[in-house]
C-alpha cells in the first residue's frame, strides 16, 4: 500500500469529523437567526470563510486539511438549514422534490408566523398559538359541555 491510500482514508475521516462538527456549529448559529435575510447572510459568510480556509489549507504541505474544511462547510450549511426550521431558497425545491421536511415547508408558507416562532424560540418565550382555545358563545353558557361526560340517571 502506498501513502496515498492512507492519506485518502485520513481525508475521509477529517471530512466526517468536519460534517459532524459543522452541523453542531450551524444549529447553534441558526438558533440566533430570526429573518430569512440573516439566514442567507449566515450561509454566505459560511461559504466565504470556507473558501478562505480552503485556500489556506492548500498552502500546507499535506492536503488532508481540505477534507476537514469541506466537511465543516457542508455540515455548517446543513446545520443552518435544519436549525432555522424553515425551507428557504434552493432547500425549498429540494424538500418538495424529495417530499421531506413537510413541517418546514408548511412554516415557509406563512413567513410572518414562522418569524414570530423563531423570535420566540430565540428569546426563550412561548411560541405563538396556532389554534384558538377560546370557547364559542353557545358553549360558554353551558360550561363548555364538550369535555363533560353526560349525567347518569339513577334507577
TrEMBL record:
The keyword Transmembrane helix is assigned to this record: yes
Chain spans, region Disordered: 108-155
Membrane-spanning intervals of the chain: 6-26, 38-56, 62-80
Keywords: Membrane, Transmembrane, Transmembrane helix
Amino acid composition bias (Basic and acidic residues), ranges on this chain: 108-125
Name of this chain's protein: Uncharacterized protein
Amino acid at each position: 500500500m502506498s501513502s496515498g491510500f492512507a492519506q485518502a482514508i485520513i481525508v475521509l475521516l477529517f471530512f466526517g469529523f468536519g460534517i459532524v462538527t459543522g452541523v453542531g456549529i450551524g444549529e447553534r448559529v441558526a438558533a440566533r437567526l430570526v429573518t430569512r435575510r440573516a439566514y442567507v447572510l449566515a450561509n454566505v459568510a459560511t461559504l466565504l470563510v470556507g473558501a478562505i480556509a480552503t485556500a489556506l489549507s492548500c498552502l500546507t504541505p499535506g492536503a488532508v486539511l481540505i477534507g476537514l474544511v469541506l466537511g465543516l462547510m457542508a455540515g455548517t450549511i446543513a446545520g443552518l438549514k435544519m436549525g432555522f426550521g424553515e425551507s428557504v431558497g434552493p432547500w425549498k425545491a429540494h424538500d418538495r422534490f424529495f417530499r421531506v421536511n413537510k413541517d418546514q415547508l408548511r412554516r415557509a408558507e406563512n413567513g410572518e408566523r414562522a418569524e414570530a416562532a423563531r423570535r420566540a424560540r430565540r428569546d426563550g418565550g412561548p411560541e405563538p398559538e396556532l389554534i384558538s382555545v377560546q370557547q364559542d358563545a353557545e358553549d360558554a353558557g353551558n360550561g363548555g359541555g364538550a369535555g363533560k361526560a353526560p349525567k347518569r340517571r339513577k334507577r
